[in-house]
Design goal:
Elements (H helix, E strand, L loop, with lengths): L1 H21 L1 H13 L13 H20 L4 H16 L1 H7 L7 H20 L13
Helix pairs in contact: 1-3, 1-6, 3-4, 3-6, 4-6
């Protein structure tokens, strides 16, 4: 389970980094900023440091992949994925209220894609956590 979770998390971060290299992450962050700041009429005096954004991206991508692959049951896995994606997206208004530009696109994309891949992997492979508890004689 460690190898698939590491591969899924790594590829999810790589996807976000590739989108950042093309400039798509910046445009998505600008759209999120406009959405949470009265249609872009407000500015944000503070920026999150780039290492913080990418560290949170990596932690969320790897952590969600590991959590989904360690959780038994498809319904629980989907609930974990959706809850994590919603919580990451909910940081945009929180950062806005704290006068920080809401740079949540990279973490959200990596989290979303990590969840999709982990769910797909778990549905096509036998996971040890899906076995019932061992019975003792």
């Amino acid at each position: 389970m460690l190898v698939p979770a590491t591969a899924i998390g790594g590829l999810s971060v790589l996807l976000a980094a590739g989108l950042a290299a093309t400039g798509l992450i910046g445009r998505l962050d600008a759209m999120v900023s406009a959405a949470v700041s009265r249609n872009g009429r407000e500015t944000f005096p503070n920026q999150l440091p780039e290492p913080v954004v990418w560290l949170s991206t990596a932690i969320l991508a790897f952590g969600l992949a590991f959590a989904i692959l360690s959780t038994a049951g498809t319904a629980r896995r989907i609930t974990l994925w959706i809850t994590t994606a919603v919580l990451v997206g909910a940081w945009a208004p929180v950062l806005s209220l704290a006068a920080h530009a809401p740079a949540v696109s990279a973490p959200w994309i990596a989290t979303f894609w990590s969840g999709v891949c982990a769910l797909f992997y778990a549905s096509n492979h036998h996971m040890a956590c899906d076995d019932g508890p061992a019975t003792r004689p």
